[in-house]
Specification:
The structure holds two protein chains of two kinds. By secondary structure, chain A is α/β, with parallel strands linked by helices. Chain A contains 22 helices and twelve strands. Chain B is an alpha/beta fold. Classes of the chains: A alpha/beta, B alpha/beta.
Chain lengths: ~725, ~400
């Protein structure tokens, strides 16, 4: 299965005035494409902290002590904030618990929905432009080095080719931009026309009727374009001019708008045709118009596309692709040679970081030369960026910085601790009983940091070895085509403007998708005018606005009541199916999860204690904590006293030595207080961390409440299989 | 556990906020010793019902009787009756004036009739206003009279030495009796344990506040009572001097419960007491309420939206929808034979801890416009089976009877 996100050995603590709270203690999981992973646990179990770490929105006093969160080849814990900006909201989106506090009460819903779209649209335009320019320049250089071999004339020819490509690409942009505007106007007008026609039929004309008519007339005229509304342009313009007249007449005749309705019907037909029209190949057309110096031949769009394509291929493209391929191969070969050298170069520094104490100067010098070496190995023409090499320098630097900062901080922390301890001792010696405890020193584990430094280097070396092994299996033909597409896509990105109107249309479509009735009216309302369920739908719509890959839902239904909860869960499930989203669903209520989750991770005191498919957890759970969770909630047939979990979760400033759940666990054995249990594998998909699964442990059956319930449910279903 | 004695009787309760009819014509009885569950989605008026009973709002219409004493009375019905009388009078006058010659005697009779009705209703309004305001005064007057009766013989028989102590006792008791309200026998537990506790008061102050308002000044006595209830709800004495933020959610809710039971209430209105808690803590609080109920013989109105919890905890359940009570039945009966389409829709939304069942589960959508046709026959609350009431019209009533057979 396609893994979208991997969390490895994630460890997070919070520095507080009372000491260091260990919120997450080394958790591992992965998230596949299109699946829902539920993280279940009590408050304070670290489930929200985990999700916040994935979003990169941890509180200021959080310390990431170790681990990795790998998304798209990048370690989210290491990448700089600017890079995270591109992921957050865009690729990974989040829905929060309380819909009231995650919406701004003084800004209209519509603005909140479109804000991100417009902002992201602008940055994307800028990014596309720089990406296009810089990539073409790099490609040009590489092609010159590959082909020209110092031949000035040949180099000039190649440069000319790239310039040509650039110039007709910009012609393409001009054409496509104009087309986009017209096409967008046409669909906008069409939506409004349908709306008004419907209202006329229902005799439910509203106050802003005139305003909408005006915008229809404006948009219809804007839709006139050679490839949108061409032949019937005059007809459409004439109709647009008549709208106001007919509306006036209609009003005079006692709100009888039948004439207007017929007129709009005619416009509708024209616009519908236009919207369904095939888009011409502007890329090829750009070349033709720039270099052929001839007017376009008169033919249908389909024929024209074939003609232009052939013209472009014959005159320019095939030649350019061949050259580009040589450029690519040259650049890749150079990168491989560099990588070969880099493996040895990097490995020689490993012993340096194995010493008892690191030398500051030597460490930073080593870092500098390593960063330089890695910089050399990067093949800048690769489209799928080798993110490990790109992030190596920043990751390594942050680890080394952490090491030397920790030395100072540890000293301070130990000093403070010693002082406190001395005071405590003094007081007890004097026979007093202080009502405070000595907080353990909030020190950072230097060995762990050193290990992380080495791990950075080792991982890159392993990565290089792997890529060298795959050297022969690369398909440069396909890559060249991908390069051209990449350039084209970036060029179109420059013209793909997101105007406020476009964002509005998109937002209204989204609101429809999440099931908000009358989205056009709702668009202009404030959050307080929505009910709880509707508000949560808006929050979901905002999260989906940027079309993310991963959606993190942090208790999205806890503040809602049963019927609304059920609706929101259905909505999330529906969206997951439609958009193939991967969802991390965080909740404390196992009952909610049965409906949603493909897999479930049960967390307690910062650790995952059980991990398996939904069926594993509900029918074959193995950890006493999961049992306790399952048996503490009543179902519709529960009569006996509820099995409440006694006590409260442990204070994570002083995490227990053994199993964190031991103190509240009915089934605890002596070893539970001594040693933390490892993860035992029960089946391919099912893991649990409890000593009960050890071969020497006594056999313990799950509580009767659970087995009874499973049997009862099975009987209710008519003995349908429960995944066994 | 539940007896046949009616502790709380709610009749045609209406609570309107301007044009919003939060609760509209709701009637039910709560028996002594039972747990009465109120369910429905947010905004259906269940919390408003609870708050109206405890007189946090002045009710718009209807009557609330606690132990047979009217503690709340709304004026809506009377006002409507007056308006009605005026309207009929106007219509009749029009009718009579149209005749020729005008029948002066009939006109006068009409007028007299209207005036009588108005006077009658006005008297009722006066009575209602009196009850609304003075039920507590009357109750405390009764208590004072009892006290006097009790102490009078004691004073007479007491010796010189005992007299000052006895007088002090009497004074203290008198003060308490003066400030005692009938409504303090009804107490409330709130949903959010964080928001409902004053962060600047210690637990002792929070729990004792009610006693102090009631006029209790004896610190020893207060402390004793505070410790007693703290232990009752599973906390320890040492907790009394701490502040709410030092407690976990479940413990805070226990403090809320302690604050309610220190007033020795007979009726507790628990407004979503576990909705804001973790599942494992929910079980602790529910078990606690169950124990207290047995121990103190409490009657509880349990307001919640989590049906599994309500089913587990309640003896009878009332289902509310948009200010109306749509179905009322013993809890087993309600889950066995849900009749009203809204109840069925609500039950279909309950998630169960069973993935195989959950993947099959289909939520029933309730749309009142589609389900009911009330254009000709208006619905009322009808008893379809002993103890099982449904809000329906005649046609639906017959259909429900068929379903039950």
């Amino acid at each position: 299965m396609d893994t979208k996100l991997t969390v490895k050995n994630l460890t997070i603590s919070f520095r507080t005035s009372n000491g260091k709270v260990q919120a997450v203690r080394g958790i591992d999981f992965d998230l596949h494409r299109g699946e829902t992973l539920a993280i279940v646990g009590e408050s304070g179990s670290g489930k929200s902290v985990t999700s916040r770490a994935i979003m990169g929105i941890l509180a200021g006093n959080a310390i990431v002590e170790g681990g990795e969160i790998i998304y798209d080849g990048k370690d989210l814990l290491k990448i700089p904030e600017e890079e995270f900006h591109r992921l957050r909201g865009d690729k990974i989106a989040m829905i929060f618990q309380d819909p009231m506090s995650s919406l701004n009460p003084i800004i209209k819903i519509g603005r909140q929905l479109t804000e991100a779209m417009v902002l992201k649209g602008k940055t994307r335009q800028k990014e596309s432009r720089t990406a296009f320019n810089s990539y073409l320049k790099l490609l040009n250089q590489s092609m010159i080095s590959a082909i020209a071999n110092g031949d000035e004339a040949l180099a000039a020819v190649i440069t000319q080719k790239c310039k040509d490509f650039n110039s007709f690409e910009y012609k393409h942009l001009e054409l496509e931009g104009a087309y986009n505007l017209a096409h967008e106007a046409a669909s906008e007008a069409l939506v409004d026309i349908l709306d008004i026609m419907f209202k006329i039929e229902k005799k439910a004309i509203e106050k802003d009727f005139r305003f909408v008519l005006k915008s229809i007339a404006r948009a219809s005229k804007a839709a006139v374009h050679r490839y949108v509304v061409h032949q019937k342009a005059e007809e459409l313009c004439a109709a647009a001019d008549q709208i106001k007249l007919l509306a006036d007449e209609g009003q005079k005749n006692g709100d009888d708008y039948s004439a207007l309705h017929t007129l709009l019907g005619g416009m509708k037909v024209i616009l519908e045709e236009a919207v369904a029209f095939t888009m011409p190949n502007f890329f090829a057309m750009g070349y033709y118009l720039t270099f052929a110096q001839e007017p376009l031949p008169e033919m249908s769009v389909e024929e024209l596309n074939v003609f232009l394509r052939r013209y472009l291929d014959d005159h320019f493209m095939l030649d350019f692709i061949a050259d580009a391929k040589r450029g690519l191969i040259f650049s890749a070969e150079r990168s491989y040679e560099e990588k070969k050298q880099a493996i040895e170069f990097l490995s020689q520094y490993l012993p340096l970081f194995e010493q008892e104490t690191l030398d500051k100067r030597a460490s930073y010098e080593a870092f500098k030369s390593m960063a330089k070496e890695v910089e050399e190995t990067i093949d800048r023409l690769e489209i799928v960026k080798d993110s490990l090499s790109y992030t190596f320098a920043s990751g390594l630097k942050s680890e080394i910085d952490k090491y030397f900062a920790a030395i100072v901080k540890n000293k301070k922390a130990l000093k403070a601790h010693a002082k406190q301890q001395a005071k405590y001792d003094r007081l007890t010696a004097a026979g007093k009983e202080p009502d405070w405890k000595v907080t353990p020193p909030a020190t950072t584990d230097l060995e762990l940091v050193k290990y992380n430094i080495r791990r950075q280097i080792e991982r890159l070396v392993a990565h290089y070895e792997e890529s060298l092994a795959q050297r022969d299996s690369r398909d440069f033909d396909a890559e060249t085509v991908a390069v051209i597409d990449y350039l084209k896509a970036n060029a179109s990105g420059v013209v793909a403007k997101v105007t406020k109107r476009m964002a509005k249309e998109r937002a209204i479509k989204l609101m429809e998708e999440v099931g908000i009735p009358e989205p056009r009216k709702r668009y202009n309302q404030y959050p307080y005018e929505f009910s709880g369920g509707m508000r949560q739908r808006i929050v979901i719509a905002i999260a989906l606005a940027a079309n993310p890959d991963i959606l993190i839902c942090d208790e999205p239904t806890t503040a809602l009541d049963v019927t609304i909860q059920s609706q929101i869960l259905e909505l999330i499930n529906k969206l997951k199916e439609e958009r193939n989203l991967s969802i991390i669903f965080i909740t404390h209520d196992l009952g909610v999860v049965a409906n949603m989750a493909d897999r479930i991770a049960v967390m307690y005191a910062g650790k995952i204690v059980e991990y398996g498919t939904s069926e594993d957890i509900f029918y074959r759970s193995a950890h006493p904590y999961t049992w306790a969770l399952l048996s503490s909630m009543p179902d519709l047939d529960t009569d006996e006293k509820l099995d409440a979990i006694p006590g409260t979760p442990p204070n994570m400033i002083y995490p227990p030595k053994g199993d964190a759940f031991a103190a509240r666990n009915k089934y605890a054995m002596e070893i539970d207080f001594e040693m933390q249990p490892p993860m035992f594998q029960i089946s391919d998909t099912h893991y649990a961390a409890t000593w009960l699964l050890h071969p020497d442990a006594p056999k313990v059956e799950p509580p009767k409440v659970i087995t009874d319930r499973i049997a009862r449910m099975k009987a209710k279903r008519g003995g349908a299989p429960d995944g066994e | 556990m539940a007896s046949n004695e009616v502790l709380l009787h709610v009749e045609h309760l209406s609570q309107h906020f301007g044009s919003l009819k939060a609760v509209n014509d709701v009637s039910f009885d709560v028996m002594k010793g039972e747990v009465f569950g109120l369910v429905g989605e947010s905004g259906c008026g269940k919390t408003t019902t609870g708050r109206s009973i405890i007189k946090l709002y002045d009710i718009t219409g209807g009557d609330i009787y606690y132990k047979g004493i009217r503690i709340g009375a709304g004026l809506l019905a009377y006002k409507q009756a007056i308006a009605q009388a005026k309207a009929t009078y106007k219509a009749k006058v029009e009718e009579l004036k149209a005749q020729n010659p005008v029948d002066q005697a009939a006109l006068a009779a009409c007028r007299r009739e209207m005036q009588d009705t108005i006077a009658e209703q006005k008297a009722k309004i006066k009575a209602a206003k009196h009850d609304q305001e003075c039920c507590d005064k009357e109750y405390s007057a009764k208590l004072i009279a009892q006290l006097k009766e009790k102490y009078q013989p004691l004073f007479e028989s007491a010796s010189e030495d005992e007299l000052p102590a006895l007088k002090r006792d009497y004074k203290n008791a008198l003060r308490v009796a003066k400030k005692t309200k009938l409504v303090t026998q009804i107490q409330m537990i709130f949903q959010d344990p964080i928001a409902s506790l004053d962060p600047r008061m210690t637990v002792r102050e929070i729990i004792a506040e009610g006693l102090i308002i009631q006029g209790e000044r004896d610190k020893e006595k207060i402390n004793e009572k505070v410790y007693e209830v703290l232990e009752m709800v599973g906390l320890v004495r040492e907790h009394a001097s701490r502040y709410p933020h030092e407690f976990s959610g479940g413990q805070r809710q226990r403090i809320g419960v302690a604050r309610a039971i220190i007033m020795k209430p007979e009726l507790i209105i628990a407004d979503e007491p576990v909705s804001a808690l973790d599942v494992s803590i929910q079980a602790q609080v529910i078990n606690l309420l169950n124990e207290l109920r047995d121990q103190l013989g409490l009657t509880i109105i349990f307001i919640a939206h989590d049906l599994s919890v309500v089913k587990y905890f309640s003896d009878r359940i009332g289902v509310m929808y948009f200010g109306k009570m749509v179905e009322l039945a013993p809890s087993d009966e309600l889950f066995l034979n849900p009749l009203h389409p809204y109840t069925r829709s609500l039950l279909s939304a309950i998630p169960l801890p069973d993935p195989a069942y959950e993947k099959e589960r289909k939520r029933i959508v309730y749309n009142p416009l589609v389900e009911h046709d009330y254009s000709t026959d208006q619905p009322t609350m009808r008893e379809v089976k002993p103890g099982h009431f449904v809000y329906c019209n005649e046609a639906e009533y017959q259909r429900y009877l068929d379903v039950l057979k």
